[in-house]
Amino acid sequence: MQLAGLQKTSVIDFPDQISAVVFTQGCxxxxxxxxxxxxxxxxxxxxxxxxxxxxxxxxxKQRKALLDGVTITGGEPLLQSDLKExxxxxxxxxxxxxxxxxxxxxxxxxxxxxxxxxxxxxAVDIKFSWSSYQQLAPPGLLSEIKRSVELIINSDLDxxxxxxxxxxxxxxxxxxxxxxxxxxxxxxxxxxFRPVNTLAPELRKQRSFAxxxxxxxxxxxxxxxxxxxxxx
Length: 232
Hints:
The chain is α/β, with parallel strands linked by helices.
C-alpha cells in the first residue's frame, strides 16, 4: 500500500463513528478543485515520504480501544493493488469498522470488496452529470462508474453519494442532472467547495457557495432523491 498520511482521530469522516483516516497516494482523476492535490500523482516527489504500513498498524494496536473504525481515502484507494489484503488485516487483526471513499471507477475491484463484506460504509464521489465527466475522467472510466452506481443502489450497503459543488462548475441544472442519474439512491450529500490547496491555483481565490445557494441545490435534488443533505 502506498500510504501518504494519517489523521489519527476524526469524528466527521465516518458517520456515527470515531475513526482514524488513512490517505492513499495516487488518483486517476485530476479534479481542478481537489483539496488533496498532493495525493494525485502515483509517484511521489523527492520531498515527499510514504508512511510505512508497519507504522500504521502499530498505531492501530496502540489506539484500537479508542477507535470504532478506519476511513480509507485518497487519492483513490481502488488504485492500490493490495487494498483488499490491507482491509482484511484491519478487519481480522483489529476488529475495526471500515469506511471507503472512492470515485468508483474500478467496478471489478469495488464489486469484489463489496462481495467480500469488507465495507461497512461507502462514500462515492459523483463529480458531475455523466455528459460532463469528460472534464475529469480518462476515456473508459465513465462506463465503470455507471456500473458501480447501479451495483451500489441495488446493494444492502450503508452508503452515500456526494458531490462537491464549485461555483462556475455546478449550478441547479447540473445538480438536477446528477440527482436524476442516481435516482432511488438512499443518501446524497451536497458538499460545499473550499478554496484550499486546490490543484488549479486559480480556484484558491474562488468563493464557496452561500448557504442559500446550497439550499436551492437541495430543493432541486429533493425532487428525485430520498435523503438529501448539505455539508457546508
